[in-house]
Amino acid sequence: SDHMENIYGYLMKYTNLVTGWQYRFFVLNNDAGLLEYFVNEQSRHLKPRGTLQLAGAVISPSDEDSHTFTVNAASGEQYKLRATDAKERQHWVSRLQICTQHHTEAIGKNNPPLKSRSFSLASQGSANSPGVQRRPSQNAVSFFNVGHHRLPTGKRVPIMQPDHLVDVREMMSQAEGQQRDLIRSIECLPASGHLTSLDQDLLMLKATSMATMNCLNDCFHILQLQHASQQKGSLPAGTTISWLEPKISLANHFKNGAAQNFPAEINKPASVREEQSIAEPCQLTREPEEINPDEELEDICDDKEDDLGAVEEQRSVILHLLSQLKLGMDLTRVVLPTFILEKRSLLEMYADFMSHPDLFIAITNGGTAEERMIRFVEYYLTSFHEGRKGAIAKKPYNPIIGETFHCSWRMPKSNVATDAATSSSAHSLSEQVTLSKDPEGQAEPDYYTVKFVAEQVSHHPPVSGFYAECVERKMCVNAHVWTKSKFLGMSIGVTMVGEGVLHLLEHGEEYTFSLPCAYARSILTVPWVELGGKVNINCAKTGYSASINFHTKPFYGGKLHRVTGEVKQNMTNTVVCRVQGEWNSVLEFTYSNGETKYVDLTKLSVTRKRVRPLEKQGPFESRRLWQHVTESLRDGDIDKATEHKRALEERQRNEERLRAETETPWCTKYFLKDGDGWVYHKPLWKTVSAAQTQQTDSN
Questions:
Q1: What would the DSSP string read from start to end of 375-415?
Q2: For a tag site, which of 31, 78, 417, 507 has the least CB within 10 Å?
Q3: Given 3-state DSSP classes, what are the helix, strand and coil percentages for the chain, each rounded to the nearest 5?
Q4: How big is the chain by its Cα radius of gyration, in Å?
Q5: Cα–Cα distance between 372 and 364 in angstroms, integer?
Q6: What is the maximum span of the chain, computed from C-alpha positions, in angstroms?
Q7: Could you state, in order of their start, the residue ranges of all structural domains in the chain?
């Protein structure tokens, strides 16, 4: 090939977290199929500092920027490299890919392809078992029987037809089943002895087999796209092309309401078939649904999360996961083990941040702008304890796109703190509302209602929108959050990108706020969670702001879960309140007049949310959607929970692929895109403004 020339030049190579990026001189040896590097060009005549065999390697441009790319060798070794610009990266990537393809095909010609593979772990019960006699230097792969079969020569491979693609899909399903059996067999090995589940060769085999199946799935997807494009080019205009996988059931809602029926797989449990293809008697719709709070009942579900404790029994699972991760790697697309999951969706977790509705409603009752800002800070800091369920290191379910969660709270009016200066005006306002809404003289309810709705509006990136309102007090909060997870060695960090806005319509005030980062620490011993980072709360109209710091624990000494903050008037730069303490324990508020207030979060009353029964929930409401995963976790059946979770995730991937191929955009149900954020489709500030305009016109 004309492109098979040797190339060389300087690239930056990532070494480790301490050393970082370093310039190295790289040489692509096309004849030998090697990528070599040296300290500099002058040392090129010396022995290379490092060498990668390119046969079977994968060359991948990075999503991080336009300069970075990785070379993943078949041996498992990886080079993370960075060119000076996008053009130079493309030059290196294309030449490396050509060389890799050439040498991979050369190996394929000398080694006949495999027709089938069967894996079986050697019996561990026999005294003559190879596992007992295994020498330390013996490769673990020798314990697996791999059958080779040479394909007939001289026969031309026919062009793939739709039926052939279905057969390929079935064979891949069988291979995936064998791969899962292989993983289970390895994980069932004893934790000690000559051959253990922590054997480095076996861990590598697990990772390699999983990567192989992922690669095969990607190749199969490319075949589907190629076949579809060929069909579109050869068929007359207007001809419809049926989906090439009729045996795989998909959900109806990928077309946002288009009713389609797919046959369910009869060899799977009914609950799994329901997760893969929700067969609803009614047509699914993306039209907003008005939830009647009177249909909601007080939540009797009390899923207290136990600490994970020591994770010795799950160490092999965690080691297998860690073997696939790199420092700083984005975990958005990484499937985490089921045993670390909470029994609730992320959308419900956001709802649990509202578990103190009395403090939320009391914000608007503050007599002055200063008091309202302080009350908001108090509510904000007390929300994390219940929202995070303390410092338990468990993770809520990742919501699927289109998933929603609804709930409400009823708070007795007598339990909400008021301000003496505003109590009479608030009371007269309530009377006006009662007179206008209850002409028959019915008694006004003695409670406030706070309604909540959340929706997963995007899958990549994962963005959630949530909205809460109290109509009686003319206040609402709208927020959108993009969760970005990264691997940090022995910790996992989650950045909450986004913004929330609290609207106090009685005062014409808007309070913007952000959320702190969360960290799962000590993931190989006793995992625990802490919050970290600086957040700001601002009210442009009043000029008051708050700065809050969530402190992560230092390496030596220091307290856990510490938080400090201050509220100040920006115009005068005067601090009117300081706060310190622990976000999951006791908070101390010190005011400018010298008074001090203590809030013990462990003794703070929690108002139970009200949720519709499962039978009245829609198929994509969180609790109904995840009910089989939750039930399995309650029963302690991790394997069954994993099966149900995998079915939901597989369905979501298939739907996303179909939308991409059919160029069908996703339509949200409750939230609308607004610039970089998402806004509830019928926020209170719009309805109140419309009502006031209508009242003005009538007068």
A1: HHHHHHHHHHHHHTTTTB--EEEPPPTT-EEEEEEEEEGGG
A2: 31
A3: 35, 25, 40
A4: 30
A5: 6
A6: 97
A7: 7-108, 293-416+446-531+612-687
Q: Both tokens of residue 175?
A: 């291979």
The one-letter amino acid code at 666 reads W
Name the token pair of 101.
């393809």
The answer to whether 26 touches 9, Cβ cutoff 8 Å, is yes
- Which pTM does this prediction carry? 0.57
Cβ 350 vs Cβ 481: under 8 Å: yes
What is the Cα–Cα distance from 212 to 223, expressed in whole angstroms? 17
End-to-end Cα, the chain, rounded Å: 84
Question: What is the rounded CA–CA span in Å between residue 96 and residue 105?
Answer: 14
Give residue 135's Cα distance to chain centre.
43
| CA 332 to the chain's CA centroid | 5
Of 586, 570, 566, 587, the residue nearest 578 (C-alpha): 566
The backbone region for 683, taken as left when phi is positive above 0, alpha when psi lies in -120 to 50, beta otherwise, is beta
CA–CA separation, 648 and 337 (whole Å): 15
Question: From CA 483, how far away is CA 516, in angstroms rounded?
Answer: 11
Contact (CB, 8 A) for 19 and 39: no
On whether the CB atoms of residues 472 and 364 are closer than 8 A, the answer is no
Q: If residue 351 lies in a helix (H) or strand (E), which one and from where to where?
A: helix 346-352
Q: Which residues contact 235 (CB under 8 A, 6 or more apart)?
A: 241
Going by the DSSP 8-state scheme, the letter that residue 399 receives in this structure is P
Question: What are the angstrom distances between the C-alpha of 212 and each of 58, 166, 175, 179, 207?
Answer: 12, 20, 10, 10, 9
- Please report, for residues 159, 236, 277, 655, the alpha-carbon distance to residue 240 in angstroms, rounded to integers and kept in the order given: 21, 9, 22, 18
Q: What are phi and psi of 483, to 5 degrees?
A: -90, 120
CA pair distance 79, 57, nearest whole angstrom: 11
Looking at the domain that runs over 7-108, which CATH code has it been given?
2.30.29.30
Count Cα atoms within 13 angstroms, Cβ side, for 30: 17
Closest to 35 measured CA to CA, from 1, 87, 80? 80
For 342, the 3-state DSSP assignment is strand
Per run of 10 residues, the mean pLDDT along the chain (length 699 residues) is 73 78 91 92 90 86 83 83 90 89 74 42 38 38 38 46 68 83 82 74 77 77 66 44 34 40 42 44 57 84 57 53 59 60 86 90 93 95 75 76 93 79 38 40 77 91 92 94 79 85 95 90 72 93 95 76 93 94 92 92 88 90 92 86 86 84 88 91 84 61
For residue 149, what are the contacts with CB-CB under 8 A and spacing of at least 6? Answer: 112, 114, 115, 116
CB atoms within 10 A of CB 616: 14
Could you tell me if 77 and 51 are in contact, meaning their C-beta atoms sit under 8 angstroms apart?
no
